[in-house]
Amino acid sequence: MSVALLKIGVVLSTMAMITNWMSQTLPYLVGLNTTKLLVASGGKADRSTGVLPANPEESWQVYSSAQDTEGRCVCTVVAPQQTMCSRDARTKQLRQLLEKVQNMTQSIQVLDQRTQRDLQYVERMEVQLKGLETKFKQVEENHKQNIARQYKAIKAKMEELRPLIPVLEEYKADAKLVLQFKEEIQNLTSVLNELQEEIGTYDYEELQNRVSNLEERLRACMQKLACGKLTGISDPITIKTSGSRFGSWMTDPLAPEDDTRVWYMDGYHNNRFVREYMSIYDFMNSDNFTSHRLPHPWSGTGQVVYNGSIYFNKFQSHTIIKFDFKTSVISKSRQLDYAGYNNMYHYSWGGHSDIDLMVDEGGLWAIYATNQNAGNIVISKLNPNTLQIVKSWTTNHPKRSAGEAFMICGTLYVTNGYSGGTKVYYAFSTNSSTYEYIDIPFQNKYSHISMLDYNPKDRALYAWNNGHQVLYNVTLFHVIRSEQEQ
């Protein structure tokens, strides 16, 4: 705003100077307000005052003029033609005046350009100043807000630290108790050292030997208690309902105590995906699992997980495969010679259940039938590392007449069917190579059993009963003999 006023003032001042010079130099050429020069169409002029030549058309010309808002001539400058009166002193003054006017006009134009640039610069500066003012206000407001937040944070921290004061006071009391405990420990250590000196080295070693002997006897007794003869099976406990009518599920009996993973395999053929649940709780209450893809589809439901690997019968073959879950590779595979497969010697429910792999307290077993044994059950003890047969036993029980079977403590137990009323009625002991007929009730809650395996760690039977995953607890009869009887 100030620069614009300055520009107008300079222009007015310059015009005043020009008017002053003209009034002093050419009073006879200028008419102010009261003098009007009219040029008619015929070229004749009417003059009311001033000095003009007799024939202005021939010797004078209108050089410049200005008009007011009503169109009246305010200032008219006439000058002789350049060819006339070239030696006249007034003509020389007029030329000098014209040069000054031209110089002043150029100066005014330069000044006007500079004034325009300065005005634009000031306008930009005004915008920038307004932006800075806004930013300063924002910084000031943010600073106030930061101070308020910091104050609140400090206040909250003080509120958190305030309850620690009584805790520190209690800690001082606890420190005193710790010192008392240290003194008591030092006293007890001194007493024990004195007792050891009184007992002597020989007595201490004898006591240690007696403790070791007792530990070995207890361990042997526990091993005897681990195995026994099956005398009862509990009512079923339904863990989950999932999958198709046929399948298998299991846990690893050699897994560490903190490893409670559950392995789940749906179907009996043309499937190669094994689900791994992190715990029995996850298996029961969620669908969170890891899927493992086997290199070959399995056959039947006689798979078993043992010491971190899964053992299964390759589909449409008598090949047994050991697959390591950690490395996801086949660590061993071997053919089970003479074993029937592809529904040749299955259980009575079918399902390609020719070869049934099992685990008990004694290790890994394979249950199958051969032509050499007339389709009757053959029991083979397998080396879990090489899959070689350690020893085999032949039975007189037809494989196709068995509903399902499982091993406990080296004895094979066989059910009389897979649907309706079911019981365990046949047992073959590999320890004595003898068999007997028994009668142990077995509740078939969902009317179709396609998998039944014993887990020595849980001392329970795992069953797949018509799309239900079921557990049975077992009761074993133990006979403990003294060392003299053995």
UniProtKB/TrEMBL annotation:
<feature type="coiled-coil region">
    <location>
        <begin position="178"/>
        <end position="224"/>
    </location>
</feature>
<keyword id="KW-0325">Glycoprotein</keyword>
<keyword id="KW-1015">Disulfide bond</keyword>
<dbReference type="InterPro" id="IPR022082">
    <property type="entry name" value="Noelin_dom"/>
</dbReference>
<keyword id="KW-0175">Coiled coil</keyword>
<dbReference type="Pfam" id="PF12308">
    <property type="entry name" value="Noelin-1"/>
</dbReference>
<feature type="signal peptide">
    <location>
        <begin position="1"/>
        <end position="16"/>
    </location>
</feature>
<feature type="domain" description="Olfactomedin-like">
    <location>
        <begin position="226"/>
        <end position="478"/>
    </location>
</feature>
<dbReference type="GO" id="GO:0007165">
    <property type="term" value="P:signal transduction"/>
</dbReference>
<feature type="coiled-coil region">
    <location>
        <begin position="94"/>
        <end position="142"/>
    </location>
</feature>
<feature type="disulfide bond">
    <location>
        <begin position="227"/>
        <end position="409"/>
    </location>
</feature>
<keyword id="KW-0770">Synapse</keyword>
<dbReference type="Pfam" id="PF02191">
    <property type="entry name" value="OLF"/>
</dbReference>
<keyword id="KW-0732">Signal</keyword>
<dbReference type="GO" id="GO:0045202">
    <property type="term" value="C:synapse"/>
</dbReference>
<dbReference type="InterPro" id="IPR003112">
    <property type="entry name" value="Olfac-like_dom"/>
</dbReference>
<dbReference type="GO" id="GO:0005615">
    <property type="term" value="C:extracellular space"/>
</dbReference>
<keyword id="KW-0964">Secreted</keyword>
<protein>
    <submittedName>
        <fullName>Olfactomedin 1a</fullName>
    </submittedName>
</protein>
<dbReference type="InterPro" id="IPR050605">
    <property type="entry name" value="Olfactomedin-like_domain"/>
</dbReference>
